[in-house]
Each structure stands twice: as C-alpha cells, then as structure tokens.
Amino acid sequence: MHRINAGSGTLVSGVGIAFLQDVQGERQTYVHRIYKGGSAEQDGKVQVGDVLEKVEHLPVHGKPLSEIKHIMLGEVGTYVNLLFRRTNPDGSIVQYDVSLMRGQTESFLLKEKQRLQSLLDSDRKQMQHAEIEIEALRGALYRADMHKNQDFDEKQHLTMAIKEKSLKIEELQALIISIQQEIDNMSKDLVDSSDIKEEMQNLTKMLADAESHIIAAKESLEKDQLLTQELQDKWKNEKLARTNCETRIAKLQMEFPAREEQERSYRMHQEQLKAKLEQV
Known about the structure:
- It comes from Guillardia theta (Cryptophyte).
- Residues 1-72 form the PDZ domain.
- This is PDZ domain-containing protein.
- The protein is an alpha+beta fold.
- 60% of the residues lie in helices and 16% in strands.
- The chain has helices at 39-43, 65-72, 105-146, 152-188, 194-226, 228-231, 238-277, and strands at 2-4, 11-13, 17-21, 29-34, 51-55, 58-59, 74-75, 79-87, 93-101.
- The radius of gyration is 29 Å and the shape is rod-shaped.
- Residues 1-12 have low confidence and may be disordered.
C-alpha cells in the first residue's frame, strides 16, 4: 500500500510485509504476512515467522510497532536494509540481511519498459528516415550513371555515402532487435493483468506498423528506379539535390555518435538497475 507524505507530497511505501508484535513476552517483532507483488515476495528470502532485529542497522527490539513501521516507510523506489533472525526446524538460529525496494517491483518494471519502448520507437523513426535518405541517394546515383558527362568522383562519393548509410541502418536494426528482446524479457516479469495485456497488444501493433513503413520505403525505392527515364529531363536540378543529400548525410553522421553514446549510457543504467533488483 502506498501513502502520500503530507509534508512533501512524496509517495511513500513499505516493502510488502505485515508485522505483529509479541506484547506479552519479549516484545519481538515478527513477520505475520508477506503481500503478493511486494518487494519482499519478489526477493523471496524473508519468510513468515522470521523475527525483525534491525532496520537500517538500528536495533528494534522493544520498540513500539508504530515506530518500526515509521522507520521502514520511505519514498517509492528507495531501498531499506533489514536484519532478520530465523529459527530453523532443527533448533538452530541464523541471521541474515536483506535490502528491499520500497513499493511494488512491477510498477518500476512497467515504467522502465515504457521508457524502452519510447527509445525503440525513436530508433525506428531514425532508421526509417535514414532509409528514405538512401532512396534519394540511390536515385541520384542511378540518374548520374545515365548521364554521360557525370564526373566519376561524384559517383564514387554517392556510392560510399549509400554504403555508409546502409551500415548505419544495419546498426539501427540490430539495436531495435536488442531493445525488443529487453522489452520481451521485461514483460515476463510483469504481473499478468488486463491492463498489461492491452499494453502488450498496443506495442505489438506499433511494431507491425514500423515494419510496414520499412516495406513501404523499399517499394518506393523500386518505383523511383522505374521512373528514372522520366526524371532525366530534370537533370539540371540534380546538382542542387545532390548538395542537399550531402548536407543531410553530414548531419546524420554527426547525430549517430550522439545516439550511440546515449545507448551506451542507457545500457550502463540498465546494468545498475538490474544489479539493484538482484541485491539480496
């Protein structure tokens, strides 16, 4: 359950554990219930009956239950360190530490999944724009081959530009596959609910639409090649068109390193997030 901090408006939450206290004995605080979907259940280490000994390295023996709950509550997404004691069936006693995230893990996974989907859509748009640029370059190159007085160096430049853009498209396609796999893996960790199913259906439709755009772009290239004969009459304007293409290529080449650096930072963030989620 989440609460709003009246002083700051911050959303606060616990870790999905209900405690009870032995008020007639040694006033020990023990785990009474573990809520489904909470951080404690996701971690799997805490069990019903375990005795809470410390919260953030502070002993809680003898403290009122209300005070202990107050210490455990915190901003959603932050971690709290707990020390438990467990009595095994053979009578042996063990202590263990656990670091649990406040709030439900699924909400963070869903939020991260949505961020990944936004990044995926952005990369797909970049790839689509790059393919359109390649279509224009290939059309210019084809028409240049038809023109008897076309300079060889200009044709070489167009050929290299198309090759470089094609390699960038392959990189974007690999990046899209990688992000899609992360989204698919993250989907397995989410709670099976109607809202999430609907979200998955929407994402699947968006993926299909993106693939349709790629097919349409390739079909457009084929049509452009068939219309080359008609475009020969407009040869005088090709000098300006090629200049625009070169300017656009230079701009795209400047943008790709920034995208690669953004992706590198994102993957580093992902590794840090996964490391936190796997903390025991």
